[in-house]
Write a structure and sequence with these properties.
InterPro entries: Peptidase_S1_PA, Peptidase_S1_PA_chymotrypsin, Peptidase_S1A, Trypsin_dom, TRYPSIN_HIS. GO terms for molecular function: serine-type endopeptidase activity. This protein is mainly beta. It has three helices and 14 strands.
Length: 236
């Protein structure tokens, strides 16, 4: 599969203050590597392929140049899906249990996830946000959170174009548009009608600006039994 992981939002705008307060920066050794999102005071959701050493999470800021390590940075316990496949990216979902409860405030909030299995119609207007690279070929992620609107793509079309895709995914953005994600923001949420319904997983390798294939997200509602079990136990 011709994939590219760790994926930014292209043809985007800088997110307005007091919006997207659920967004997390998943970091290694203090540097942004992936996106994520806060679903309750104790857990952040991200992609399983974002697993790395020395992982921490930053919450409560749109600008990574303004991070108070004492109040915004959290150590985490990693709860990676037990059936995640690093070759095919099947079951590309991971929960991160925070070392302490997040203090919800004017700069930090949660986002709901589906409460049951859902069907998202093609051409549903959604949005994706992140801090990845600002242009193809660059290796530098951005400090300020950015966001772009994307529309969902019929799964049959997505399967036809990719030929092989994992089960339990949503496709949105890329493919005949100039909007989508690129390197730097795997793990961020696809938000439709106020709910985080997908997790940034992969797109077409080395082709962010004018991708010929759809962007692919893990569909959260397909993993609710596993997610809810962890949330209830408050542990992996």
């Amino acid at each position: 599969m011709n994939q590219m992981r760790s994926i930014l939002v292209l043809h985007c705008i800088i997110a307005k203050k007091k919006t997207l307060l659920y967004m997390a920066s998943v970091q290694s050794k203090g540097k942004h590597k992936c996106g994520g999102f806060l679903i309750n005071e104790e857990f952040v959701v991200t992609a399983a392929h974002c697993d790395m050493k020395n992982m921490t999470v930053v919450l409560g800021t749109h600008d990574l140049r303004r991070v108070d390590d004492k109040t915004m940075r959290y150590r985490v316990q990693k709860c990676k899906h037990p059936s995640y496949n690093d070759d095919t990216l099947e079951n590309d979902i991971m929960l991160l249990k925070l070392s302490r409860k997040a203090e919800l405030s004017k700069t930090m909030a949660t986002i709901p996830i589906p409460s049951k299995s859902t069907y998202i119609k093609a051409k549903t207007k959604c949005r994706v946000a992140g801090r990845g690279i600002s242009k193809p070929g660059s290796r530098e992620t951005v400090d300020e959170l950015r966001v772009v609107d994307v529309s969902t793509i019929d799964l049959k079309v997505c399967e036809k174009e990719w030929r092989i895709i994992p089960a339990n995914v949503i496709c949105a953005g890329g493919y005949k548009t100039k909007k989508g994600f690129c390197q730097g923001d795997s793990g961020g949420p696809l938000v439709c009608k106020g709910e985080a319904v997908g997790i940034v997983s992969f797109n077409e390798k080395n082709n962010c600006t004018y991708p010929s294939l759809p962007n692919v997200y893990t569909e959260i509602s397909k993993f609710l039994p596993w997610v809810n079990d962890i949330l209830q136990k408050k542990s992996c």
